[in-house]
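Lab meeting minutes (informal)
Scribe: AK
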Amino acid sequence: MDASPLDVNAVRADFPILDTRIGDAPLVYLDSGATSQKPRAVLDAERRFLETANSAVHRGAHTLAAEATELFEDARTAVASFVGADEETLVWTSGATAALNLVAYSIGNATAGRGGAAASAFAIRPGDEIVFTESDHHANLIPWQELAARTGAVTRAIPVHDDGTLDLAAAAEIIGERTRIVAFPHVSNVLGIVNPVAELTALAHEVGALAVLDACQSAPHLPLDLPATGVDFAAFSGHKMLGPYGIGGLYGRAELLDALPPFLTGGSMVTTVTLEKADFLPAPHKFEAGTQPVSQAVALAAAVRYLDGLGMDVLHARERELEKRMRDGLRQLPGIRLLGDAPAGVERVALASFDVDGVHAHDVGQFLDSRGVAVRVGHHCAQPLHRRFGITASVRASASVFTTEDEIDTFLDAVSGVRSFFGADA
């Protein structure tokens, strides 16, 4: 019997896609770490906007334009509040990848002399160091590699222990007087481990470096107060937190967004334009050139209101139970190697990646799919981390607000049959 205060059956009724069957089996969706399913409240919000208020924002004086603009900015307020921030510190982007690239390329523009005196503090010089971690998603690694290549900076990586936790002693040695940026994931998208944001941010700030947080895997699962963490910038993605595709957010401390020069330029982010130059709007609008994802922003606001209604503390507590059930079950299966199997006291979200001895991850995924279980297979855009553990690919199962204990058990039962099916247990 479910002892959680969350009525999971009522939640499941809000997600139409969960009625899907894969062949003869009911869908067990354990790929929310890649993309989450959407409740009716989100689907209806976007549809309602498109049917009743669809118009370009910040551009027209007619009734629909005014209504669309109000809904768009109300959505900014709602999403900013969800992560503990003020609306002027939230920039709409197409997703977390775009948000992280925005920071990296805007810093590159500052390095090139754009933005004036205020922006000069961001400039990266040859020999400066940009630090990320061995567990970063490619979206929080490659933009910094590219920035280093353009500026002559050096990249350094904080290593990961065998149990998946970051080597904080090494981090303290690596982060030094030449460090300008420290980028790291709040939650590893492969390991599910919640990293020590306060400690890493303090190490960055002690040497005057910027702390940049990838919050993609924390925003759907943990209560967030980004300003309270002390990070300078943070990125998150709507489609991983019950929202639609094509929308995400960049949080930045107000004074930093004000000083940072824009990356994308064009319409809607300017005050005055002549044939010689342009003057830009204040943040966040100076980072929002062109046509904005208006219906998606409205739908993301519906998603965060849905999550707030369930209670993020409640969701996190429940997912810890599911995570333990999943991880304990996998540990008991022969031939299964969990990646980053840190001690029980390490905080996690309900996500686990594993390798099946003698069976390729893609074969495991196809076998599970034949039983209705949807998981992620591959390197999960984290090739360096997989290389660290001596493999090229893994299987990842990740739960969400609608996941049940019975679904975890169905998943474990399916995994238990993989090696015998492929003759790997001989």
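Next up, CB showed the second protein from the same session:
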Amino acid sequence: MTRTLVISPNWIGDAVMAQPLLQRLKQQHPDRPIDVLAPPSVAPVWRAMIEVDSVLETPFRHRALQLKERWAYARRLRQRGYAAAYVLPNTLKYALIPWLAGIATRVGYKGEMRYGLLNVMHHDDKPARAMVPFYAALAQDPALPLAKVPRPRMQVGADKVAAVCAKTGIALERQLVVFAPGAEFGAAKRWPAAHFAQLAQAILSADPLAQVALLGSPKDREACDEVVAGSGGAGMFNLAGATKLDEAIALIARADAVVANDSGLLHIASALNRPVVALYGPTDPDHAPPFSDIARSMSLRLECSPCKQRECPLGHHNCMNKMGADLVWAELRPIIEV
């Protein structure tokens, strides 16, 4: 049986936004299994997608060429019988793998001048397309106009949700709002911890039995500690760095609402179709919007934004600082009081 290989981006949010590509590939070849080659940090995202048969975790170091190791790994892939490979990262080193593996059809964007390594070459539009259609376009002939694109979708079993709630002490019968205060891109994308704390106070004042869970990586722990301290602590669960990604995905699947910066966890919530309030500062809400049935994208759309910078180049961070907790509460409150 022939198979399809998808080589994952290195970022969680990008992996989620690439999911519609898998839907389109599965529609084209319903009986062809899809494997995803992904970094260990991103692999749990793909395991929550029903189109994926197997997730193969990359053994390569970040930013390292490791040509000898890629050659050895490509030889292993050759045995799996791939008919086509879709290379989502734009780097040359990831395009090497399907070429070395002798996969007949190798699809991707030009990226780092990957002529020859790829034999179905797509070219990025200027201005750049939104991320979901950007990846979904790889499923069709580069010369054709983009067909209608489905929205990202993920799913988590009820047993996994119950297990992680039992582990973390979160009650299944009480309302749960998830906060995602982190953002890997840089500090400029982060809504202030004091604003998150004020929002938590509003939630718990409206419903004293509500639960607020803060998710993120170990790097987000300090900011989440600030949120808990500023909110008073009651009803708060600081789980940043205390949950693995698959557990965080299960908690998001349980959430009644998610409030998040433009981050991987935001896009996971969107793909799980959870109600979301998405907070955008230096990034463009039209470039990577949430797709939930209930979604609010918040941006002050100041003259200086979106600057797409990791740190505020003007030093004031007004795009996030001036987005007060009262503004976000006005969007969140109707969602959780339904």
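CB comment: The chain has two domains: 3-139, 158-336.
No objections, moving on.
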